[in-house]
Amino acid sequence: MSTFSVEEKGSAHYYGNYTISKEGSRNMARYDYDLFTIGAGSGGVRASRVAASYGAKVAIAEERYLGGTCVNVGCIPKKLLVYAAHFSEDFEDAAGFGWTVGERRIHWTRLIANKNAEIERLNRVYRKLLDEAGVTILDGHAQILDPHTVVVDQKRYTAEHILVATGAWPTVPEIPGSEHAITSNEAFFLPALPERVIVVGGGYVGVEFAGIFHGLGARVTQVHRGQLFLRGFDDDVRAALAAEMKKRGIDLRFNTQIEKIEKVKDGIRASLTGGMALEAGQIMFATGRLPNTRALGLEKVGVEMNGKGAVVVDGYSRSTASSVYAIGDCTDRRNLTPVAIAEGRAVAETLFNNNPTRPNYANVPSAVFSLPNVGTVGLTERQARERYGKIDVYKTTFRPLKHTLTGRDELTMMKLIVDQATDRVIGCHMVGPEAGEIIQGLSVAITCGATKAQFDATIGIHPTAAEEFVTMRSKLPEPA
Questions:
Q1: Per CATH, domain 178-286 is 3.50.50.60
Q2: Which of 214, 403, 429, 462 is the catalytic position?
Q3: What are the pLDDT digits (tens) for 293-348?
Q4: pTM above 0.90?
Q5: Is residue 148 annotated as a catalytic residue, yes or no?
Q6: Distance from C-alpha of 196 to C-alpha of 182, rounded to nearest angstrom
Q7: What number of other Cβ atoms are within 10 A of residue 275's Cβ?
Q8: Alpha carbons 286 and 183: distance in angstroms, whole number
Q9: Class for domain 6-69+112-169+290-352, per CATH?
Q10: What are phi and psi of 40, to 5 degrees?
Q11: Candidates 3.40.50.1000, 2.40.30.260, 3.40.50.300, 3.30.390.30; correct CATH number of 366-470?
């Protein structure tokens, strides 16, 4: 791992082997650009725009679509499909409030067309933002030739700094018949909604698409090789979500793997461990993503990569080649869009604003837009016990007010984890409607070091689900 040193000498800051003056001169006699960004996803766009705002001359190359995974085949279209899926429950729940809802059915092609129109609008927004910032946009595949040279469509460009922000790409394991499977990339553009879907995988994408397909009317089986999905999340969160998904009628198959896939008349047949088989119209693998770093020429310039192909970087996102930086999912650190954006800004601050900045990865909140939602920030109970030893745990499970009239058997789960020594709240977890919206606010409190006493002193908003986070008073007994 390369080290990153900063030393101030007179009117300039010295960063490793290169210099940036306080006045902002960029040694432009030697290079076409101060910064050349490869990949116009959220992180690459943020880095490029911020760098340009500090006076840098910036180019950005993108071979697919502006906005990257998040805008095109990730966060945004996925959330739109989650909204669509939730209407099936809303229609059912309306009767409890006196509404009569007539015949209803999903027009999949209309939904996808409307989703596509919104994504195209966002693509135009991203292009406009880059244009207005003065960033040169190059459409095409970029490859690094040497530490300061990039080629796009056979045209060479030189740059003082190169930033790799190429994200990650979904993968399908090499099993017999894997060519018959799709990933989330293709799921966003299916010509029709399958009547039956098998979703393979137990991460964010797997549980989210299981809820999407089910909510839109498909019969869904989710297959996961582990004992319970969402590895890395709090165990109570994982168990609560599994229980709610089962109530909805999703067929969860844990400790199970797909051994082979065969094409049949009406779709596919998937052979499972244990000799069982399932037939479905479609099978979608959500079993992981790999850093999108192939065919970039990184090896030519001495950029170290790990076994997954992720770029190895230091705390300032600099690779082992001093002129090459990398951010976002291609580094496989915290693979979340807001984290990539923070890393992009940090690189721009470091290189072009004389403000060496390291992203803060503590207390990064996250949400899973499953049905119901998951929201979390801070440590899980297991992590907290390993780090702090003595902790207090508060947990509540309740039926939301809305469902006292709908009759729906849905429970919300909330959990707080507190360090006994300092009384600080070090973990906050929720499974239930709008969990992401609620946890976002609480993440501010946890980032500020709020104590359980301060949570208790906060007056809740009644009647809301969120007020439960400031009214939990009874600690759970210590595990036996």
A1: yes
A2: 462
A3: 999 999 999 999 999 999 999 999 999 999 999 999 999 999 999 999 999 999 99
A4: yes
A5: no
A6: 14
A7: 7
A8: 6
A9: alpha beta
A10: -105, 45
A11: 3.30.390.30
